[in-house]
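FW: tagging you since you asked about this chain on Friday. Here's the raw sequence from the shared folder, copied in full. Didn't touch anything.
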Amino acid sequence: MKSINRNVTALASAAIVSLSVFGVSASSAAVKSHVTPHATHVITLKLPAPYNPVAPVGGHDIYHCSLLNPNVSVDQMIQQVDWVPGNIKEDHHAILYWVSPSDVAAATKMDNSGKGWTCFGGTGVGAAGGEGDHWLAGWGPGHNQSVEPTGTGVPLPTGSLIVMQMHYNLLSGHFPDQTKVTLTTVDAAGSGLIPLNLKLLAAPPDAPCPTGIHGKLCDKTASLNDVGKRFGVGLENFDKGLESYCYGNLNHKGNSSSCRYGFNQKEYLWNVTPHMHLLGVSMVVTLNPKVGSPRVLVNDSNYDFHLQTSFPLSQPVKVLPGDIVHVTCSFNPTLRQKLPYLKSLPPRFIVWGDGSSDEMCLSIIGFTTILPSGVTANYHPNMTPSIPTFPTALLNSIAKFSGAKVPSMMSMTDAPLGKQANLTRLQQLQLALGFCG
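HL: got it, structure written out here
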């Protein structure tokens, strides 16, 4: 289960993290915190040289990782992230991952003298027994600045390196890219800032071909098999496990999809980030929908993949064990025959998949387990950055479908299968289970 948790939660792929993926639109909750003013640090990072992505034969997507050095000599907390994407025509999303000092040597070797490496799913750093890919920040189209909610921050420990993972979608061709990001930080000691964590709540997109549209991939089983061929059987099993958890079977279909998740501890919710792809049109996230006074956390009724945003809550929302959150996404499959990116592709039954021509329904929630108002000025946070996590119940459902096959090579990787021959069966499964939107 630990290996599944490590790599399945490499998502975001989705998406996409002020520390809610793809950028919080503004400082959010009006919470008074005991924060001592500190001088700010400005850290600017960019790809060491322009990278020209080339998708493998039969694919349109590739993930590329580069190793960057923020030269951090004192524990810091990230408070703001500003992105300058290199080429919006092909940049699907970007994520910054934390590299712990113990993994610096391995990451440096993988970086291949500054050329970087292909990294479908997570970074692959520390994959043998590591706990997971820790996120620092993320970007998606349309939202170039992330500001942490007041009183919170993202840990950036002393001696860290950073991996910048770029997901390129090449339906419009491929162009040189040199994405840049600027981090604004303060010293962690004495700041009183609380680390923001992430949870990932998903629902299975299961949209059939529109009436009158026909093709081999309009069959759901054929579409799922195609996802397995392109991205590895691990992602096919994720789709099956997600549908089994949310609906209890594998026969759900429709242009709307939903799922319910329970909380098992007291938490404070700070922001919600919807993430879908090009066919997504709306997302609603509701707390305790069947209780007398349900609360709508987010109602993004006009979702736009090219203008993704995170919604800060006016005040942190307290949840208790037993509370329920309900995620619902709606899709418009007819857009596949209309959008320039998609209309040249064959029609298909829409299921969960990594490529921009596939779909997702993902709600990314930023939360803390305490409030800054209860923290003293000399509070020093745990300096391990967050690992985005799916609920354990969903991971258990995915596990039921995993392990039956050795994953095939996925289209996002530009290395031939032979270069993966030294991976164990477990490591191949871990690789295939990692993904991000």
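FW: The two ends are 22 Å apart (CA to CA).
HL: agreed, and Residues 1-36, 127-131, 404-437 have pLDDT under 50 and may be disordered.
FW: great, closing this out.
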